[in-house]
Specification:
mainly alpha
Length: 86
């Protein structure tokens, strides 16, 4: 999945906040809905990472309750992101 494509798909721009709060909220809501119905594990994880970047991702335990491999990957991702922030 290409980040630029996802940003344009959900927000109509490379910058999710560029088009204003209503457009951001609409794009975020569509992203959350698509994550909920996506069945492909790789796409689900990519959508979750994007949601995390936009501060609207559920905790890995909730997002991937029935997918232990994805849950472990999400926890590892969050650990790596915290490590980069330090």
């Amino acid at each position: 999945m290409d980040l630029d494509h996802l940003l344009h798909h959900y927000f109509g721009s490379d910058d999710p906040h560029e088009r204003g709060p209503d457009a951001f909220a609409d794009g975020r809501d569509r992203l959350i809905l698509d994550f909920a119905i996506e069945r492909d594990p790789g796409r689900r994880f990519a959508l979750w990472v994007m949601m995390d970047a936009l501060d609207c991702a559920p905790r890995p335990e909730d997002a991937f309750a029935k997918e232990p491999d994805l849950r472990r990957n999400a926890v590892a991702y969050l650990g790596a992101m915290r490590g980069m922030a330090e």
